[in-house]
Design brief:
This protein is mainly alpha-helical. It has one domain (about 5-35, about 60-90). It contains three helices and two strands, in the order H-H-E-E-H. It has helices spanning about 5-30, 40, 65-85, and strands at about 45-50, 55-60. Strands 1-2 form a two-stranded antiparallel sheet. Strand 1 (about 45-50) and strand 2 (about 55-60) form a beta hairpin. The two termini are about 35 Å apart.
Amino acid sequence: MRFFELLNTQHVLALIILTLIFAVLFAVTLWVLPMFGPRSRVSNLKAVQLFADGIEKADGPFPMIIALIVGGIVLWTIYYILFYGLTEVIL
């Protein structure tokens, strides 16, 4: 026996939990990245290009967590398009 009224609540809670996990991962990623400030000086990132107002561009590797987030979004989008495109189109 399924309680369909509770199913909506479960879906909403699942979406909230996924959103919180994504927000925490993204916040940790931004906190860990040595973009500017004293961390970049400690990690020995050297500026390769200087812009106006003191903005510096450093040469470093692309962070793995951002690659995973972007890859996950692309895979989810492809899955979403294919799943709803193939299951809900009636010819």
